[in-house]
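Work Package 4 report. The design task specified in the project plan requires that, given a folded chain encoded as structure tokens, an amino acid be chosen for each position. We show below one input record used in the internal validation round.
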């Protein structure tokens, strides 16, 4: 990495410069979205890119249309309950099938805020965004059917949040 502005977050170091191995097409596609780049020594060693949540869908569309990232490999979230104000990180691993290039896209979201849907870009995001909503309670603005897929519709809570009770909610007792 070059010596651009560096921002440290837990074990990740973000910089304005893309890591080695990120194609020129990928860098150009993401340039209008003020990307912050990181290297991921774990998670397959893929380069990471963080954009503001308001630019999430536009950045993902640019990757598909301009840089050939035709495949959404994974789409989920992580919870950092002690991090304020943006408690959650939404992640999307995208892949250019022709070149095998992968990029771990990230955006942050505060509790109660929504993230723009990418289900109109990749059909596979339909179910993964519903899963993220069902397990974390993160809404996706513009999603065509944002309903629970694992938990009952009247279930109280979000099971993958780190502050969810380990025993679940005990509604019935002997």
């Amino acid at each position: 990495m070059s010596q651009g502005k560096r921002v440290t977050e837990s074990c990740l170091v973000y910089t304005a410069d893309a890591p080695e191995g990120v194609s020129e097409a990928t860098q150009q596609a993401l340039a209008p979205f003020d990307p912050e780049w990181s290297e991921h020594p774990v998670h397959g060693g893929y380069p990471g890119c963080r954009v503001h949540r308001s630019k999430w869908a536009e950045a993902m569309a640019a990757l598909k249309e301009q840089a050939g990232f035709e495949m959404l490999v994974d789409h989920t979230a992580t919870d950092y309950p002690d991090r304020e104000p943006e408690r959650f990180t939404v992640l999307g691993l995208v892949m250019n099938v022709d070149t095998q290039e992968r990029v771990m896209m990230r955006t942050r979201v505060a509790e109660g805020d929504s993230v723009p849907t990418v289900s109109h870009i990749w059909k596979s995001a339909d179910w993964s965004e519903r899963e993220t909503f069902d397990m974390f309670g993160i809404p996706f603005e513009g999603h065509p059917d944002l309903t629970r897929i694992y938990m009952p519709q009247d279930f109280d809570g979000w099971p993958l949040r780190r502050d969810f009770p380990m025993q679940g909610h005990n509604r019935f007792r002997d």
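The two ends are 60 Å apart (CA to CA). Validation will be extended to a larger panel in the next phase.
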